[in-house]
Amino acid sequence: MSKWRHAHLLGIRNLDKEDIEYLLEKADSFREFLENSPKGCEELKGYLLVNLFFEPSTRTRTSFEIAGKLLGMQVVNVDVEVSSLRKGESLRDTVRTLGRLKPDVLVVRHSASGVPEYLAQFSPFHIVNAGDGLREHPTQALLDLLAIRRFFHRFEGLRMAIVGDILHSRVARSLAMGFGELGGRVVVSGPPTLVPREVEMLGVKRVFPVEEAIRNVDVVYLLRIQRERQDAGYFPSLKEYAAFFGLSDAYWEKIKDQVVIMHPGPVNRGVEVSYSLVENERSLIEEQVTCGLAVRMAILETLIREGEKPWEKRF
Ligand code: CP
Known about the structure:
This protein has 315 residues and is of the alpha/beta class. It is built from 10 helices and 9 strands. Helices cover 37% and strands 14% of the residues. α6 links the parallel β5 and β6. α1 crosses α5. The structure holds phosphoric acid mono(formamide)ester.
């Protein structure tokens, strides 16, 4: 019996342990389904998914599109660059206009924190947050949790180090909340300029240097260095970042028997992690992508089949 009681997926902060476990259980079934029936099904035939991405994306946008199609949905990708947003139409009017075209789910990524919550106030369809500003990236956290669950078969007692640009990372925030909710413990590390004290409010511990943070953990989760921020002076150069904060082959030799490597992608090979470690047998990076497809199928299916109906209240 379902206990799902949300109309939207806006953030990990809105979910409790039971919600997360419910989605992971269903996503795990879809992960098996992908092994056995990769051509899909017609579970959501007749439903419409719209992707509205204001920031670049390969994994999230493509996997939502494929997830929808594997479930039999129609999928439309709005090209923001040639939309009427470029003629000055407001986000509110854009979304109200899309609403008249009767989508069932809108997946949105935006550089401004809080946009999914804002849209959910008046949207007549389900909203899924595909990343908002510095705030949350809940589907990334859920796919990371699925990859961890499938490798370790538990969360209780697991330890994770999230390393890198914590300051600007919506991935780190969502993942730390979700992993903690399920019973894991998180430490964060990286250049001290990119690991703010406020992150401790999420129940995580700051540990320096990086070698100390990753010494006794089960998962090393490396964050992308956002090259667009490199000139802001948070660290001297990519070369020095790689030398002091990246996971090198030499250091890997000291921890390789106990740890798995994760990264949300896209990876700067040779910066956050050595070139060859991306494809190491204890790297879950490619499995994370497949788990992303399964998680997004689970989210679409859950919202459409079991979610509260936003259109009963609005429009
Ligand atoms: N991890 C992630 O969100 O990747 P994309 O930006 O490619 O979607």
